[in-house]
Amino acid sequence: MFSKKRTIDDLLIEWQYDEQLKQNIVHWQTIEATPARYSKFPNELHPSIKKALNKRGIEQLYTHQREAFDYAVNGKSFTAVTPTASGKSLCYHLPVLQKILEDQSSRAIYLFPTKALAQDQKADLNDLIEDMEEEILSYTYDGDTAPAIRQKIRKAGHIVMTNPDMLHSGILPHHTKWVSLFENLKYIVIDELHTYKGVFGSHVAHVIRRLKRICAFYGSDPIFICTSATIKNPKELAEKLTNTNHELIAKSGAPVGKKTFLFYNPPIVHPTFGVRRSSVLEVRDLATRLFEAGIQTIVFAKSRVRVEMLVTYLKSLTKNKIQDESIRGYRGGYLPTERRAIEKGLRDGTIQIVVSTNALELGVDIGQLQACIMTGYPGNIASAWQQAGRAGRRQDSALIIYVANSTALDQYVVNNPTYLLGSSPEEALINPDNILILMDHLKCAAFELPFSITDSYGEFEVQELLEFLQDEGVLVKTSSNWYWMSERFPAHEISLRSASQENVVIIDQTVPAGTKVIGEMDTYSAMTLLHEEAIYLHQGTQFQVEMLDWEEKKAYVREVDVDYFTDANLAVELKVLNEDKTSQHKTASVSYGDISLLAIPTIFKKIRFQTHENIGSGKIHIPPLEMHTNATWLSFNLPENWSEEMLTDALTGASYAIGSFIPLYIQCDRNDLTVVPQVKSVHNDKPTLFIYDSYPGGIGLSERVYDILVPIIEQTIGHVQNCPCQNGCPSCIGAQDSFSESKQKVIKILSILLNEIG
Amino acid sequence: MSYENKMMQLKQMLGKKKEQPKNKPTFQKPEKPFYINEWQKAGLALVENDFGVLFKREVTYPFTFQHGFYKLGLFFDAVEKWQKATVEHPYAIHIDEPVLFFDTETTGLKGVGTNIFLLGLLSVEEDQFVLTQYVLADPANEAAFLFESKFWQQSKTIVSYNGKSFDWPQLETRWTLNQNVLPKLRNPRQIDLLHSSKRIWKNNLERMKLTKVEEEKLGFRRNGDIPGFLAPIIYTDAIKSGNASALMKVLYHNEWDLLSLVTLYIHSTNLLLEGEWEESATTYTNIGKWYGDLKQPLQSEQVLTTVTENYQTEEAGLAHYYLAFQQKRNGMVEEAIKSFQKALSFVNNREKLKVLEQLAILYEHQLKEYERALHYTNEGLQLLESQSFIKKDQQMKYVINWTRRLQRVEKKLKSKI
Questions:
Q1: Contact A449 B3 (CB under 8 A)
Q2: How many domains does chain B have?
C-alpha cells in the first residue's frame, strides 16, 4: 500500500482538482516567501552572550533584533512589531543581559499579561543564561511564588518576570521591600503590548505611571521595551500606555516561508434563511484530511466547548490505536508540565493535531506547525495573524484555512479577503483619562508615596482630585504634602480587569457542599444576563440563576440542561450631559460627549433553540441602574414618508449591523460598545443613533467612532446589500420575525444617513 | 450613583500637565502642626530636632514595680538563670547584653501607606526601667520622629511581640522612605515573644493575643483599655481635630503591652529553665519538643521524662510520643517501644498512625519480631481505612505504603516459618 503522507504543496495541487471542496473555497491566495534580512552582531555585544547565541547556531541577528539593541544601548524606549516566531524575545533579552553583564547591580522588570506566559518565558531565558555561563538571576514573581524565595527575589533578582496585577497589588504598594530593584531599574519590558487595550489597558497605563513615579523617587529612569503583534497603532499605544516617547521598529527581518490562505465558507443548507452548515463540522472534515496527509496542524476554536467537541470528533480517527496521543486539546488552565508534554509531543511529532482556544495565540512556545485552521474569525486582524503565524516552519510552505461562522463579521471577512490579507489592522485603544480608573489609581499612588502640593501625576494635574480624596477622608493635607491616612489598602479594592465599581460574583451551587465562584460580571451586563431565572452560559455549560442578591452583588446559579435560552429587555433612557465635539451637516449632526444612561430591566423571554419560539416570559426585579459614559451620537430629521414605527424597525436593524462592524476598525469586543437607536431623543426630540462605551466613564472607543462614522456606515451598507439572505439574517441585520421588507428599509435609512453626513 | 456624579464633576477639573522642570528640592524642615498646645496639655512633651518636631512621653518604674504576678526587677533574675543554664537557647539574653522592649502602633496593617505613629520603647537602666514613647506629630514630620528613636545609633537587642514580622519590617519601610535624610538603620538582634509563646502554649491557649496571655498566664488584667484596632482611627482623628485625649489612651495601651513584655519574658524563662510544674502537661510537652527541635536532646529528654513521671498517662501521651523519638534516635530500642506503646492510646489519630508505623518498623527491622510487626501493621491499616482524618489522595498513598509493608512482613514471616 502506498503511503498517504504528502507535503502541503502536494496536497494543495490535489485540492485544486477537488470540485466539492473548491465550491466552498471563496478565496485562495498564496503569499510568496520572504528571505531573512540579517545584521552583524554589535561590536560591543558581550562575549558570553555571543557564546550562548553561537551555541544555538545563531551567527548573526535579524535586522529588527539589531535595531532593538541599538535603540536600547542609546537609551531610547522603543516598540518592536514582531510576528510570531521572529525571535522577538531577543529584542529585549540582548540589551537587558548586556546591561547586567556590564553592571551587576542592574535590574529589569519583564511584564507579561498572564502568569503562564511569564513562567514559559522564564524557562526560555534560563536556558539562554545557562549557555552564557554567567551568574544572572531571573525569577517569576506572582501569586504562586513561594514565600521562602520572595525575599531573595526582591534583593537579588536581576530580572523579575511578573504580570500587571501582581505589580499593582503585590509589588508597588510594598516598594520599600524592593529598594535594590527600583534604585537600579534599567529596563521595563512589556511583552504582548497589543493585549493592553480597553479597560485592562487603561488600568495598566496607570500601574505604569505609578511604577514610574516610584522609580523617580528612587532615582532611576528605566527604558521601556515593548513588543507587539501587528496592530494599527503600536507606537501610539505604547506611548499612551507608558507615557514615554517610543521609537518604532516596524519591519521584521525574520524569514517568512510561503503561505497559502484558504477562505472557506461552509455551504448554505437552508437558502431562505441563509443558514450554513456548522463551521465545527467543516473544520472536523478539513482537519481529517490534513491528519490523513500526515500534516501537523493546529486548530483554533473560540470556546472551550468547541475545543472539546472537535477533540472528541477527531479522536475517533485514532480510536483503533491504543494509547494514541496524536490528537490533543489545549485549553486555558493547563499546568506547565502538561504544556511541556504537549510542546514536546509537537516537536518530536507524536502529536499531530492540537486543538486550542486562543490560549496558544499568545507567546507560548509550542514550536511551529505546518497548517493552521481557524474555526471562525478570532475577532480582530491581530489575533488572526497571531494564529496564522503558528503555521510555517522556516523554509516550508504553510497552509492557513479560515473557516467562517455565520455571524456578520465572519461573513464579511470571508467575502472580503483583502480585509484580512491587505488592509491595515485595527487600532488598540486605551483611555487613561477615564476619571473612574484614574481616581482608583490616584488613591493607590497616594498610598505608595505622598503627593506634594505642587505634584502632578503622570500627565495629569491632580491637586483638585487630591482635595476630593481629602474630603473622602483617606488623605490628610499638611503644609507641604498630601498623606495617605486610612487603614484601607486601596490596591486590593481595585481589579485591573474591570472598570465597574462593583462586579456581581457568580456562585455555582450545583454541588451543595462544594459551592464555588465561577466568574464575575459587571453590574450593567448582569441586569440582563444574571436576573433570576436567566439561563447563564459559562464556558458552554448552561446554568440557571436561582437567586440574585443585588445588594450583595451575588448570583447563585445551578447547572441545568434545557433547550432554551433567555433574552432580557432593557429600557434605556439616554441623556446628553455634555457635548465635547460636534459637526453640523445639512439636517443632521454628529456629536461626541458625556451621556448618562438609565437602564431599566423590564421582562425576559425564554426562547427555544433552533425554532426561536417564545415559550415563556417573566418580570425582572432589579432596580434601574445609572451609568455615565462616553458616546457618539448621530441626530437627524425624520425622513419624508417615514412613520416613526417604520423608523424604529429600520433603526433597530441598522444598529445591529453597525454594532457588528465597529470591531473591524477598533480592536474591541462586540460588547464593548453598544448601539442604541431612539426615535425621539430626549435632548433634541430628533431621531438619534447613540453609540456608547459599555463601561462607566468610557474607554475611548466611542470617541474614535466619532472620527470614522462615515466609513463604518459605508461598510455596513455594502455588507447588508451583499448578504445572500432575502429579508435579513443574523449575519447582517439580525434575525427577523416577519417577512416585511426590513432589509431594504435598513439599507434605505443607512443610505439616507450616509448621504447626510458623508 | 452619587460617587459617579461627583466623578463627572471632577472630570471637568482634570487638567493635563505642561512639562515642568524637575528639580529635586533639598530637605526642608516641615511646618509645625497647629495643635502643639493641645497635645502638650494632654500630657505630651514637644521635641524639636533638625528634621522637625515630634511628641514624647516618659515614665520610669522602680525595679520593685509590680505588674501582674511579677515585679519588673525579676528580669535580672531571668537573665541570670540563662547565664547559669547549661542549655543553649535562642531566647537567652546575655548578662552584658543591652535590651530594649519594643512595640509600635500603626495606621494600618501593611504596605507603604501604613504609618507608624507611636514608637514605644522600654529600656533597662542602672536603677530603673524607663518607658519612652515617641509620637508622630504629623506625617510631614516623620523624619524627626524616626531620627529621635536613635535606631540608627544604638543596636540594642529588640524584645517584642510579633515585632520580627510586623513592627520591625514596618520600621524598615518608614526608614527606607526617609533614607535620603536619615542615617542608616541598624539591624539588631530580635527576640520575638509571640514566637516563643506559640511554641510554649500551642494547644493550651486558644488565642495568642498579648492581652489573652496576660490574663491567663501573667496575672494581669487591663482596666479601661482601648482595643488595638481602634488605634488608627484615633490617631487620624487626633491630627485632624488636634484633640489628643483619646490618643493618650492608645499610649496607655502601648505602655501595658511593653510592661507585659518584661513579665512575659520572666515567665517564659522560668518555664523553659526550671520545672515549677504549675502549668499543664501540654505546655511542658511543647517545651520538651522545642528543645528537641533545637537539637538539645538531653534537655528535651529531661523535660519530657519529667512530664511522663509527673502527669497522668492520659495527659502525657504526646510527651511519651516525642520521648520515644528521642530514644529511638539514641538507639534505645526497648525504651522507645515502651514509650510508643504508652503513647498509643492517648494521642490523636494522626500521631497514632505514626506510632503504629514506628512500632511496626522497630519490630520488623530492629527486633525482627515479625508477628508483632504484623500486628501493628494490621492495626495501622485498620486505622487508615476506618478514619477520615487525612485527605483522600494522601490516604491512598498511605494505604499503598502500608499494604506494601504488610506484604513484606507477611513474606518475612512465612520464610521464617
A1: no
A2: 3
CATH number of A8-31+256-421: 3.40.50.300
Q: Whole-angstrom Cα distance, residue A106 to residue A157?
A: 10
Rounded Cα gap, residues A383 and A667, in angstroms:
10
Please indicate, yes or no, whether residues B72 and B162 belong to a single structural domain of this protein.
yes
B4 in A contact zone (CB under 8 Å): yes
| A469 against A146, higher pLDDT | A469
Residue B389 and residue B320 share a domain: no
Out of A175, A436, A461, name the one closest to residue B7 (CB): A436
- pLDDT: which is higher, A506 or A72: A72
The amino acid at A613: E
Class of residue A170 by CB neighbours under 10 A (exposed 0-12, middle 13-18, buried 19+):
middle
Three-state SS at A220: coil
Domain final residue, candidates B347, B369, B397: B347
User: So what's the ipTM on this one?
Assistant: 0.87
| Gap between the Cα atoms of B212 and B67, Å rounded | 15
Give SS3 for B159: strand
> Of B27, B71, B47, B46, which is closest to residue B220 (Cα–Cα)?
B71
**Is residue B326 domain-shared with residue B390, that is, in the same domain?**
no
176-215 in chain A: CB under 8 A from chain B: 176-177, 179
Residues B180 and B266 occupy one common structural domain: yes
CATH superfamily of the A38-249 domain: P-loop containing nucleotide triphosphate hydrolases (3.40.50.300)
Q: Give pTM, 2 decimals.
A: 0.85
The answer to whether residues A682 and A574 touch, using CB atoms and an 8 Å cutoff, is yes
Strand partners, A355: A299, A329
**Which residues, numbered 394 to 453 in chain A, qualify as contacts with chain B under a Cβ-Cβ cut-off of 8 Å?**
433, 435-436, 438-439, 446-450
Per-residue pLDDT tens digits for A405-461: 877 788 888 988 888 887 677 788 898 998 889 999 999 999 999 999 999 999 999
Query: Is there a single domain that holds both residue B231 and residue B300?
Result: no
pLDDT 10s digits, A679-693 = 888 888 999 999 999
